[in-house]
Amino acid sequence: MNQPSTDNQAVSGQAPQTMLMHLGRVADVLFALAMAQNFLILQEPEAARSLANQEIINFLWSQLQPLSAYAVAFIVVGFYWFEHTKRFKFYKRENELHIWLQLLYLMGMFLIPYSNTLTMYFSENTIVKIWFSINTAFIGFLAAISWLYATQNHRLIDSSLDQKTINSIFYYALIEPIFSFLTIGVVFINPSWWDYIWFLLPIPYILIDKFIQPN
């Protein structure tokens, strides 16, 4: 008689470490592609050799908005990748539900280049900026939910991992989604501020490091 499956059972009979390795590779590839695709919004000058000095200057000025959008998206994806790798090293096994949570997380991450392109082409549109913020918040909350699920009763992590470390990683996972929702409020106050508020994202990470640093 077959035994019922458990939360800790490996997916489809594969070794837990094998599944983790596959998921880790998929995540690394998608993060790299998301970062690279953000760069594609930058334009190349047409007939560059024939441009006059003033035309070159005008072109460079016209690229400030795309460069700003690229920098924001790169920072967002970069922080998510960094936090993802910190969480991933604690996983010891996988199950189907957690894999689906991870795939939804990566799907949201891969939408970032599209959302970023919208902010470049419709830079003054409030709805587009709200969409970008919701996209990043969706990713962050999925990361937090995924971590909560994995750490409940040490379901998918090592039993020796202490609660303080678990809580600290959870707090880190909440930074970007909460920050993203705050940027929605900034849009309604002054849409032009939204483009620059993202550069403050490292500050809450620094504060968490200072006041809630695990032993």
Automatic annotation (TrEMBL):
Ranges that cross the membrane: 63-82, 103-122, 128-149, 169-190
Reactions catalysed: K(+)(in) = K(+)(out)
InterPro entries reported in the protein's UniProt record: TMEM175-like
Top-rank taxon, per record: Bacteria
Cellular compartments per GO CC: membrane
GO MF annotation terms: potassium channel activity; proton channel activity
Record's bilayer topology term: Multi-pass membrane protein
Key words of the record: Ion channel, Ion transport, Membrane, Potassium, Potassium channel, Potassium transport, Transmembrane, Transmembrane helix, Transport
Cellular localization per UniProt: Membrane
A Pfam family the protein falls into: TMEM175
Family, as annotated: Belongs to the TMEM175 family.
Protein name: TMEM175 family protein
Record organism: Thermocoleostomius sinensis A174
